Amino acid sequence: MDDLVQRFLNGERRALARIISRVENETPEGREYLRALFPHSGKTHTIGITGGAGSGKSTLTGALAAEYRRRGKTVGIAAVDPSSPFTHGAILGDRIRMQDLALDPGVFVRSMAGRGALGGLAPAIDEVVSIMDAFGFDYVVIETVGAGQDEVEIAGTALTTILVNNPGTGDDIQALKAGIIEIADILVVNKADHPGADVLVSQLQALLSLAPKGSRRPPILKTTATRGEGMDALADAIAAHRVELETTGQLEKHRAEDARHQVLSIARAILLEKIRQATPEHELQALVDRVAARQLDPHSAAEELAAAVEQSEPRAIKRRV
Amino acid sequence: MDDLVQRFLNGERRALARIISRVENETPEGREYLRALFPHSGKTHTIGITGGAGSGKSTLTGALAAEYRRRGKTVGIAAVDPSSPFTHGAILGDRIRMQDLALDPGVFVRSMAGRGALGGLAPAIDEVVSIMDAFGFDYVVIETVGAGQDEVEIAGTALTTILVNNPGTGDDIQALKAGIIEIADILVVNKADHPGADVLVSQLQALLSLAPKGSRRPPILKTTATRGEGMDALADAIAAHRVELETTGQLEKHRAEDARHQVLSIARAILLEKIRQATPEHELQALVDRVAARQLDPHSAAEELAAAVEQSEPRAIKRRV
After folding, report:
1. B19 CA to chain A: closest CA distance, Å?
2. Residue B171: which of A53, A119, A287 has the nearest Cβ?
3. How many domains does chain B have?
4. Are residues B139 and B73 in the same domain?
5. Does B32 contact chain A (CB < 8 Å)?
6. ipTM of the complex
């Protein structure tokens, strides 16, 4: 293990890839790597890119990475979306080709497996980001799909959250109204060459003008990611947001909230695992059958499971004696 | 409490509304109501309606409810979407007006508050659906937004899941490819009057033809919800799906899986609450601060919290002595 950590700290990409796999699989060994490398993290700037299917966020992610490379910066990309072109090594656009990025030693792409059965981002996403962070990438970009919970979670993980909007369907505004706009630090209208782009920009401006006085107004940028247009301004806006986070104390606050969220969510996963350990499968099934038959309500059943966890430790000690 | 339960069982809508509020707020009292009423549930057919923002699923929900009323059936609607017109009592379409539904004693509409901080559908959604079920509605429709986790969860809760697709953006196909199509029991192409509707139907058919042999092919229906068109066929398709569930044994399987999911997810919430009780806020904050400062990794911190839960019960006894 020490050897792999050493090679990781020397900047060896194969060591990075292997450690990420172990962390992602949530093995005890993976946790040891995380423990060893976590103190090296905390320096990268994490960027979340989110938006509906077809908004062009994968292309935008690739184009932004290319822009950072032009600026001499290194980039880790975690694509949390099974349909992301990153997963398939697809050609992204006219000017940005996945192959170019994949061959660039300053870019590391990792697509993440789907989510756990009980919801949320891929469970290991925070941990994979921490590992990329520890490896020393200047930026780590997390790309995720969809309007919903994922977007809220990505905002918890990423320092700068970019919401990509797609002109053409005025309907997008509905999703924005739903409060998702509140999590965006930067709004991007991609496909700026689309005839509806300016209308969408106006709609977004009108929407932002309704925000309470004193609240932050995220900048609205137009991009055409397939041609790499607008990437310079986007990278500048991200840099400006970073400065804003630092000068307002938001950076510290964000890190503290992210740490709290991570710790509680892992603790919950540990306890769920303990439930499974404390109650043998046939007992769990018997309980579930009674609920399915409406003889027992789910809450009472859950209380039985939770109580078993609390009693499992003394039981285990007894067995050892 | 007994009086309110009695009025509920007598079919009094105000008793239903009050009990739902208590259940939704997750008070101990709410749990008692759930315990008392859960044995009366299990008879309704639950329908999940999901789709992207602007796909017209709210209008479809209203139009389907109107169709069921024409058939002499009662309908409970749980709208899990802060942007849903149900939340605002908005006019839904040319032929379906929210006001008509709201005044109909055979329809009960409830919009649900946002999700908990740690993800998933509104935590009480299953419980609210159980209460509506116990009240005796023939159908309970759950409407939710977005491509992502919500859709997967709604498929766990609802017996029939309807995925609403929106012609015009060929991009929608991306979301479908992402596996979301797998959770749909019925595919609806809404806005059938849109010029792109037939193209979308063909694309969906092509996509379904790629499914492994022997796997279920969800029917594809065209609707124009604003004019109530296609609702008769949709209600028939739902009825056919119900028969299919019953004859293949899927109904029992679904109920068992739903019960397991509910029990485990409540148990997890109980344990999270125990974490908060076992570790005073200042200790939790100290732990989180060490993680934010990268002195401690999140997993080790979480293990400390989980261990405190297991030790909290004996400690409490000691204190009492």
Report:
1. 16
2. A53
3. 3
4. yes
5. no
6. 0.76
